Structures are given as C-alpha cells and as structure tokens.
Amino acid sequence: MSMTWAKALFEPASVAVFGASAQQRKVGNVILANLTAPDARFKGQVIAVHPTAKAIDGVAAVRSITELDRTADLAVIATPPDTVVGILSDCAKSGIRAAIVVSGGFAEAGDGGRNLQQSVVKAAQANGIRLLGPNCFGVVNTSFCLNASIGIGMPCKGGISLFTQSGAYGMVAFARSEATRCGFAKIVSVGNKADIGEVDILEYLAGDDDTHVIAMLLESFSDGRRLFELARSVTRIKPVVVLKTGWGQAGQRAASSHTAALADNWRVAEAALRQSGVRVVFDGETLIDVAEALDRGGSVKGRRVAVVTNSGGVGVELTDLLERKGSHVPTLSQPTRNAIRPCLPALASDVNPIDVTTDWARFSEAYGTSTRLLSSSGEVDAILVVLVQRAAEKLDVVDRLIEEIRTARERGEHVPVFVCWLASASAEPSIRRLHEAGIPCFRGTGQVARVIAHCRSPHCEQERPWTVPSGRAEGGDSVKWLSMAVALDTAQDAGFPLARFSSSNNVAQAVESACRVGYPVVLKADRPGLVHKTEAQAVRVGIANEEALRATWADFDRRLGSGSAVIQEQVPAGVELAVGGYRDASFGPVILFGIGGVWIEVVRDFSLRLAPLNRDDADAMINDLRLRAVLDGVRGSGAIDRKALAELLVSVSTWFFESLWVEEFDFNPVIAGEQGLSVVDVRIRPRPN
Length: 689
Ligand code: ADP
Ligand code: MG
Hints:
Blueprint: H1 4-10, E1 14-18, H2 27-36, E2 45-49, E3 55-56, E4 59-62, E5 74-77, H3 84-93, E6 98-101, H4 110-126, E7 130-132, E8 138-141, E9 146-149, E10 157-164, H5 168-180, E11 184-189, H6 198-206, E12 213-218, H7 224-237, E13 240-244, H8 258-262, H9 265-275, E14 279-281, H10 284-295, E15 305-309, H11 312-324, H12 334-340, E16 354-355, H13 363-377, E17 382-388, H14 390-393, H15 395-410, E18 417-422, H16 428-436, E19 441-443, H17 445-456, H18 484-493, E20 501-504, H19 507-517, E21 521-526, E22 539-543, H20 546-560, E23 564-569, E24 575-584, E25 588-595, H21 600-603, E26 605-610, H22 615-623, H23 642-658, E27 662-673, E28 676-679, E29 682-686
Parallel strand pairs: 1-2, 1-5, 2-4, 5-6, 6-7, 10-11, 10-12, 12-13, 13-14, 15-16, 15-17, 17-18, 18-19
Antiparallel strand pairs: 3-4, 8-9, 8-11, 20-23, 21-22, 21-23, 24-25, 24-27, 25-26, 27-28, 27-29
Helix pairs in contact: 3-4, 6-7, 7-9, 10-17, 11-17, 13-15, 15-16, 19-20, 22-23
Bound molecules: adenosine-5'-diphosphate and magnesium ion (MG).
C-alpha cells in the first residue's frame, strides 16, 4: 500500500486512545471497549493514554504517548477540543502518522470551534499527520477486526465499503448488517472533513481488494473536479453509489450568461456524478439497499426483467414501476413459455409476469422451476420473485428458491434474482433464510423497482424529486463581455460553423457588407454593455434590401445611440439550440446543451456535463432532452444532423476546456436545419484578471 496514512488508519498494528476512560458514559470508554471487544478479535495492540491511571478496563495506560519506547500507528482522540493541538504534537514526536479526532466542538460549533479546527489542521500538517474528522464516528475495517468507532458492535464481513459524512450512517450499517447479514469491508466517517476527504478515501477504496461496492453519503464536495475524474476511472472497476444531501443549501451564483444562470449547483453535481458512472440515489435507505444488492451479485446487465408472482395485481403494479424506471417486462418466447407451462397451475399466466396463482400446494414447484428456466433462457437480465403472504410463509418455497439460485450460479449463469417481500411478521424465518443465503430481498414494490434500476446501469434514468428553483437574480452586466464582433471572430477562428457575418462601423460599410453576404440579411447593433439584444430591440431579421437596411440602421442610431453593427446572413428557419459553458468553482468547466433559443429560460430543457466531452457524453446529452424528438423532425420539417451536432458539442467542449481565458460563453442560438448547423449569436466573457 503506497499510502502510509491509509495503512496506519485501516491496518494499525497499534492504536493509542486519548481520552480513554473507565466511565461508561464517556466516548473514550466506548472506543476502548470496541477496540478490545473479545468478539471483535482485533490483533493489534491497544494503548490507553491517561494522566493518572496505570490501566483502564484491563488496558495498560501511559501518561503521555511520548513515554512509549515503540511508536503507535494510529491515534484515536476523544479529549476536549482545546487539548487536540497539544496531543497532535506529542503524536508527531512518537512517530504517529494518522489520527482520528472523534471529539466535537469544532467547526460545527460556531466561530470559536472553527478557529480551533483550523489550528488542529495546521498542527496535523506541520507534524505530517493525516487527520480523520474532527467530530466523526471513526473507522471500521472488518477484515482487520478493527473497530475504532463509537458504534455499537461490529458489522459482518463483506464487500460494501461505506464512506459517510454523517456518523449516523455508520450505525445504520451495523443495524443493517444485523438485520440482513449483508457485509461490510470498511466504514469511514469523516465528520467535519477538515483533512481527509472523499477523494482520499475513494482513491484508497478503489485499490482495496476487500471492497467490491463503494457507497458514499456526501453533504458537500471538497473538490468536485477531482472527485469526478477519479470516479470516472473507479466506476470502471467497481460500482460507486452516491447519496448527496443538502441540495437546498446550494449556493447561488451571480451570472449573466444563460449557461451559468441555468446551471444550478445541484444540476452540475448530479450531472457530473452521472457522467462519471456513479449511481446517484436520493435517500439513505436506497443507498444501502443498492450497495447490498450489488454486493450480493445483483449487477443487472440489461433492461429485461422477468417477474414471478403469486399475485396478479402486484405483478401488474411491478410491471408499471419497473417500466417507469427504464426496465422492460418482455413477453417470453413461445419455447420458454412451453417449457414453463407444465410447472404452473391450469389458470396461471406464463406470459411475464408469470402468475403462479393461489394454488399454494404447487408454489415450491412453480416458483422453483420457473426461476430455473428463466435463468437459463437468455431472455431476461434479472428475475424478480414476488412473495406475497403464503408464498413467503412456506419455508419449502424459499428453500427451493435458494437451491435453484445456488445451482444456477454453479452453472455459470449470472442472471440476478431479487425478492420483493410482502408478508407479515410470522414469515420472518423465511426472509432470514433468504438473507443468510445472500439473496437481495426488499420490502415494498416501489423500492425493489428502484433498486433494480440502480443495479442496472450507471447511466439509468434518475428520478428528480426536487423542483427546479425558478427566478434567479441576473448578475448584472457590469461584468465585461467581449463585443459581439470580437466574440464572433473568436468563434470563427476556433473553427465553429458561423453564419456568414461582417461588422460595420457606418451605414455605407453595412450596405457594402450586405451585398457581399447577400439579402435577406440580419442587422444586430453592437454597443458596449449590450448583452441581451432582443430585449433592447437591437436585432432585426428579414432585411430584404438596401432601403430597409438604411432605415434599420437609422432606427438603431436613434434608439441606442450611434455605434457599430454586425450584418449577418439570414439563416433559414430551423430548430434553435443553445450550447454554452461556464467554470464552476468546484467542478471546473461545465457544458450546457439545450433547446429553445430565446425561449431557453422558459422551456428549461437542457442537459449538463463536465468538459471535455467524448462522443458518448455528447450523444447522451442530446438524448437527455425532453424535446429530443423535435430534432428528428416534426410537422413536415426534416431531421437535423445529429452526428454533426454531437461533433460540435465535443469540439466546443474541448475548446472551452483548453481556453482557460474564457470564463463563460453562450452560443445561442445555434440554428439546426436539414442543411446543417449555423451559430448566429456568440457571447464570451473572459476571465477577469
Ligand atoms: P440576443 O440573444 O442577444 O437577443 P440573437 O443574435 O440571438 O440576439 O438574436 C435573437 C433571435 O433572432 C435568435 O434567437 C434568432 O431567432 C433570430 N436570429 C438572430 N440572428 C439570426 C440569423 N442570422 N438568421 C436567422 N435568425 C436569426
Ligand atoms: Mg442569442
């Protein structure tokens, strides 16, 4: 392991507990008890640090860590906040490389605490110590039998690693493990995240062989861009499930480009996570459910789901729910139906959902055989077994299912089986058996459909339970934008397909330009500070001849004061699209693609990705639009060239990624027709320096 702090944190040979205490209600007592619990079987050495005691609860104590002749690896600190700086410098003297600060009273406790936290971070940095916390739950590493946390008890060993900003979820992990026997590899709670953060831990978990699924609960992003880049590579080797909370506190950005105004922080964060292949969930229960299912072989390769049920009604409901989440419940082929038929009662349906009816004497055979045949059929990517009441109560049904799933795995079949559990408490012994056999079971139809969707694909359709905040204050145009002529030139030089244009300082030049460009033309006034031209009636389309051009020029001069203007070829009608970008403080360059031209703020149909985009990102961005069908041609108009559009998105994103001097920009509209794409309006704001 290259990260020495991580080895000290997760696999310490010796742990020093500061604030160790024999008093049961103290945090230091809980930590000591967890580290030395006989059933945890931690093999490392535990040292208590205490001003007077020789031993605490049978653990040898020292007065100061500097008295030890050997060095400890990890410090766990549960002392009052104002003692932590001093302790860290003692730790450094004795060679400790990592510390968990469990104590509270830091940034979460107002200004005084915030200052104290800063001095603690400084002390850690000055002493070469990496610090977890403060105000955190601690760390659990089941494969090392390490419970350096304030939780109650140790979860089972398994493949889920949980990173959480909230200590409560450390406890939820233990409770879940007790309830379903699902297993954890590492649990890390970062509390105030003063030093070690999600990027450090994700990097560590990516390389940890015991970790098969990474679940993260984030309240904030330390460095969105680094998280995105790292997650992009990690999701290729193991699934990452993220719950982000606290969207309501997302800061408002003052911005005058359309893109920066539309790209609310939560949309950027969600887009970045999805783009990096993370499975984004919206509640803690789903976070753990999805992690559990994935760790138990629940990875779903495609959209096709078979449902086996003893309630026709629940089958219909689940079909709706699954399809809403992007899965399909396909009709099975005739040969498969013929094979399943004999194991079902006469009135049963073999179409999918397979309805075994209420003939409970035959449940075990009906569920078992149909599950086996579905698993080997090649016609479905997941099997959802619904157990309602009697089907759940009958132990022979679950035993038969467990047996069929085991033998299917032995045959090398990888179609995961999920159970939807709808039964009363008297059926608990059955669900216990399913849990022990490692079969993912979920209570409630909505939850099972949601979990299957998240197990399917990192890019599955997400729900959006929050509403789009409306009416965002304009940042004011005091911020400097390039003049229209310069912005158009810049975009032209970068190689984008601009409508032919020419800028003119007086009406005589304009007349000359119009002849070159060819009537009809569009005239646009270019005045300092004039950013939104339509609102100022500074755009006139359909100018048919010289006379109309002169009249418009005079009108602009009269209303807007004299100045220059741009003559543009009039592009034939098409779909008005918007492509733009801005630099997010945390995620870096963000690209927006939307539909609507001058209507974009009203239509609000747009997608976001982080730049630079690859072709797949660009295609996905286009497919994200609600109104994407418009691009395929409606009411007599032809389809636009999607390939050219995707290529434009890729090249614009690359240009923006590389043009560090550009702070934000809009190409709005890009007019897309059957003939191709024309950029007719460009707005660029350089980075202020
Ligand atoms: P602004 O966004 O500052 O109001 P635009 O240059 O985008 O000004 O023009 C506003 C609208 O005028 C565009 O959305 C488009 O409908 C129309 N328009 C502008 N330029 C052209 C052009 N060259 N050809 C056809 N229509 C145009
Ligand atoms: Mg415009």
